[in-house]
Amino acid sequence: MFPIADENFSVERPYITYGLIISNIILYAINFLTGDSLNNIFAFVPKDFLLGIEPWTIITHQFMHGGWGHLLGNMWFLIIFGDNIEATIGKGKYLIFYLLCGIIAALSHMAFNLESIIPTVGASGAISGVLGAYIVLYPKNKISTIIPFGFIRIYKVEALYYLVIWFVLQLVFNFTDPYGGVAYMAHLGGFVGGAVLIILFGGKKKRAQNDSLYTWENHYDKT
Does the N terminus or the C terminus of the chain have fewer Cβ atoms within 10 A? Predict the structure, then answer.
């Protein structure tokens, strides 16, 4: 299930989302050209973090990636799902929300890997939080999705169903492929964290206000 677009009712440019994407691409390019030097410094290592070693990595790892495929996949999901969340809660809150989701994701991964010395990198934990917020705020939005059933076809799937399936798959992979090199618990923790945080950030109230404004503007004449 590969998403290619969603419903977007905002006319504002998602500059924070753009900035996050550009930052991730630039940092990955530098890391690639310098022989993985940035990942060696800024990756999150659960055991080190517990010992108080390089605590800033709980944030910096969110901007590191292990390969072009890893980077592009994460950035694709971010641009599709992040813009609506940014438009709903505002740019400053969105940036804080995003980073907090990444922190929750890293702590979720660490909770099940306390002795791990394997470096963890990637924005997918934070982006999973964006997905968690999306299912709370926009469950009825249609996600244009490529689902290959012997041939390529685009389906429109409600976000509720799309993201529930995504969550279940992460849960299944966590148990069936625990040593596959993917921090699935970070995805799961980030998703749940994002769903809770978006309520604490006033996202549902703001969404209701936006819906009311949208209805007013489209159903009343203005002089």
Answer: C
Whole-model pTM over 0.85:
yes
Selection from 168, 88, 77 nearest residue 128 by Cα:
77
In whole angstroms, what is the distance from residue 92 CA to residue 71 CA? 24
Give dist(CA 39, CA 31) in Å, integer. Answer: 7
The number of beta carbons lying within 10 Å of the beta carbon of residue 26 is 11
Q: At what angle do helices 68-89 and 124-137 cross, to 10 degrees?
A: 40
Cα gap 197→191, rounded to integer Å: 10
- Number of domains within the chain: 1
Query: pLDDT tens digits for 117-174?
Result: 999 999 999 999 999 999 999 999 999 999 877 677 888 999 999 999 999 999 999 9
Of the candidate ranges 21-35, 67-81, 153-167, 170-184, the one whose mean pLDDT is the lowest: 170-184
Using CA atoms, how far residue 165 sits from 61, 150, 161, 193, 195, in Å, is 27, 20, 6, 18, 16
CATH classification of the domain holding 79? 1.20.1540.10
| Single-letter amino acid code for the residue at 221 | D
**Strand-pair partners of 143:** 6, 157
